[in-house]
Amino acid sequence: MKRWLGKAETTLGNHSDRLNAINIFPVADGDTGTNLYLTVRAAAHAADAVTGSGTAAGQSTHPAADPHDVGAVLAQAGQVAMEQARGNSGTLFAVFLAAAAEPLAGHTRISSPLLAAALNRAQIRAWSALSDPVPGTMLSVMEAAARAAAAVDSAHDGDDSNQTLGLALDAAVEAALAAVVRTEDQLDALHAAHVVDAGGVGMLLILDCLRSAVLGEELQSELLDGLHGYDVQDPHIHVGMPRDEGVEVMCTISLSPLDAAMMRQRLDEMGDSVIMSQVGGAADAAGQYRWRVHVHVLDAGPAVALIRSLGEPTDISVSELAVPRDPQPQPATVAASVAATAAPSVAPAIAAENRNPDGHAR
User: How far is it, in rounded angstroms, from Cα 136 to Cα 186?
Assistant: First the structure.
């Protein structure tokens, strides 16, 4: 599992520029590759820090996870990813990872039945996290992979051999690829631009990294051949799209179930792309659960006021949706210096993504 997330971090770093280039849904802000990379990087570092002898490095609020427990390792990675998730795609991946960990708890190895259960739990949770989920996105890719793994598991009567696990992983990636191809005709914006969904491609890459890590095989280099808009010579599609007004608001907050339902309803009325998912499973002494919140709104003020009226948010961020489209790095800032340590293809985008609407680095 650590090898999987490490591979995914590297792979998304290498592919972030092309993912950004075709990112036009739900908004053409060209940051899906960056958001996925940063979120997966957080998960990978959290998993890699699990030793069983203490808390994960830099994550002192999280109890030590058993390094031999697949579910425990992924649960810690998922929780950290949720707290540091970026954008729609990063938040949905974090939800996916945290949910996938649940059926794996207490197991020291993964098998076809466990893979099928994990992928199914993950895709259901991701679909339910969004207030208005639609097909033709990374949600469809998650669902297709889960259905394919479940079909292999059913056909082999729950066989837990490594051979059947390999068949299930092959089927999941193959189904994910087919789902990515279908996205172009499932969303009008993608069909008009003649491209596939950026988040869907990112999820396909993550699943192929899982297959590679578990089976000890190389990534399938030809996997993305022929995907519309993805060739290196293709232009940055998002640059020619209308600029989206408004901002993205994200935070983590402790809420009662009733307040969480109220917040979701009010945010649905204010904006769109509302994602709310629990961070961790247990309630605190006051009966509140921690939630990761994401929404796109025209004006941050009312949304932030609503959030603060219901609790004390942490990790709150407000980012413009109309990100700068200058491909050159920005002047030296704190964010730019952080970006310089990341994969080369994501450095300029990270510098832009880490600025608040007033232009100052977070």
Answer: 5
